[in-house]
Design goal:
Elements: H1 3-14, H2 19-31, H3 33-40, H4 46-56, H5 64-75, H6 82-96, E1 99-106, H7 112-126, E2 130-137, E3 144-149, E4 152-157, H8 158-169
Parallel strand pairs: 1-2
Antiparallel strand pairs: 1-3, 3-4
Helix pairs in contact: 1-6, 4-5
Length: about 170
Amino acid sequence: MTEQAKIYGKVLYELQIPEDMVQETGRIFKENPQLTTLLNDPTVQTEKKKNIIGKIWKEPDFSSTMVHFLKKACEEGCIGQMEDMIKVWEKCLLDGAGILSASLFYVTRPDEEQLAGIREFLCREYKKKDVQLEMAAAPELMGGFVLKTGDVEYDYSLKGQLERLFQTAGR
């Protein structure tokens, strides 16, 4: 993710555009990859791109603020990063509500009591009210789990322990 996408994602959040408009914009881009290609094409004139945006994103379904944001992203050549911008917007939305986003990769799915313990740990560690936990099976871990949030990773997997053991033994 580029720095520009991070900045534009934060701006999108700060503009306080209604959630449904931002989510619908994300859906439009996701379901129409050719639209992203066209709006990101440097050989297409900026005015033509702005006209396309104006025809797709129009009131009352979309605010003039949303339209202006998209046109500005087009002008600056970062409209192709809309998916990343929306990810940053979503993170800002969660942060604003006191919710931490984290991912849990496991071999054996944790039970509810274990999940509650993980959530409590994260809330305490990051001073948040709640945790949005994405979960995914990862048999390559061989056992245990890996918990990721932002740039921090807690590796309690058998694979991770073996790798650390080999690194220590290799010194």
